[in-house]
């Protein structure tokens, strides 16, 4: 007769070895705003931890992702950076807005026109069923260019309050600390805080349901991939 203790240990070992691995939650965050406001630099800074050596205007969609740890749970953050120019957006806008969990609106603090465009971007989100129930934040980029600022904090904060969004002012380029040790508002260290704030909010309200690849990339959309995934977690896509 088999030893009952040995049998129990074998069963426990067998059951534990056949358990599926924990499912990784995936949060799709879209980053939108006018061309040239620094969307690509912000997403690159967060995913690669540095400012890109050179950038070009996004043609189509830049897709980056980063795996983060929040209270012991692995969360995959997917950042979708789309072209700000309408002629590059028409063929993919429907897919871009599909299964979105949060929206980051970006403007350039040195370009008042990019700030005035924000209502149009908010309206586009509404047209694709992304209302106030979807977490949204407002980011003023390029705060390191102090002598060229056209959009003041007070004006931006009033706009953010009107649209029920928190406001972050930052720079994807510089990392500055004030004399008292606190972060300068133009510090790139704020970029980490921006996206981690969104991730924490999503983790607290989203159930454990997402583990599939990003909307079936490459298989169900009319986009073509240009090269393999890069070391910084970037995939570049353009009109197919």
Automatic annotation (TrEMBL):
Its EC number is 3.6.5.2. Belongs to the small GTPase superfamily. Rab family. Gene3D superfamilies: P-loop containing nucleotide triphosphate hydrolases (3.40.50.300). GO terms for biological process: central nervous system projection neuron axonogenesis; commissural neuron axon guidance; Rab protein signal transduction. It is found in: Endomembrane system. It is an enzyme of class 3 (hydrolase). PANTHER family: PTHR47978. PROSITE patterns: ARF, RAB, RAS, RHO. This is small monomeric GTPase. Signal peptide: none annotated. Its main location: membrane. The keyword Zinc does not apply. It comes from Tetraodon nigroviridis. GO terms for molecular function: G protein activity; GTP binding. It catalyses: GTP + H2O = GDP + phosphate + H(+). Pfam families: Ras. Residues 219-240 are annotated as: Disordered.
């Amino acid at each position: 007769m088999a030893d009952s203790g040995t049998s129990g240990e074998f069963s426990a070992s067998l059951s534990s070895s056949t358990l599926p691995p924990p499912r990784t939650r995936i949060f799709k965050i879209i980053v939108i705003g006018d061309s040239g406001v620094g969307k690509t630099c912000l997403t690159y800074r967060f995913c690669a931890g540095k400012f890109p050596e050179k950038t070009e205007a996004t043609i189509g969609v830049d897709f980056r992702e980063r795996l983060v740890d929040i209270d012991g749970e692995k969360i995959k953050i997917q950042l979708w950076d789309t072209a700000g120019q309408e002629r590059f957006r028409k063929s993919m806008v429907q897919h871009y807005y599909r299964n979105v969990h949060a929206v980051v609106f970006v403007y350039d603090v040195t370009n008042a026109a990019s700030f005035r465009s924000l209502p149009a971007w908010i309206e586009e989100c509404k047209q694709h069923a992304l209302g106030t129930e979807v977490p949204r934040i407002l980011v003023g980029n390029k705060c390191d260019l102090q002598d060229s600022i056209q959009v003041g904090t007070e004006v931006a904060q009033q706009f953010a309050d009107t649209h029920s969004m928190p406001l972050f002012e930052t720079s994807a380029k510089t990392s500055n600390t004030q004399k008292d040790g606190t972060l300068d508002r133009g510090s790139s260290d704020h970029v980490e805080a921006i996206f981690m704030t969104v991730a924490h909010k999503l983790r607290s309200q989203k159930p454990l349901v997402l583990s599939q690849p990003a909307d079936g990339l490459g298989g169900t959309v009319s986009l073509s991939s240009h090269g393999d995934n890069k070391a910084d977690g970037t995939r570049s896509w353009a009109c197919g």
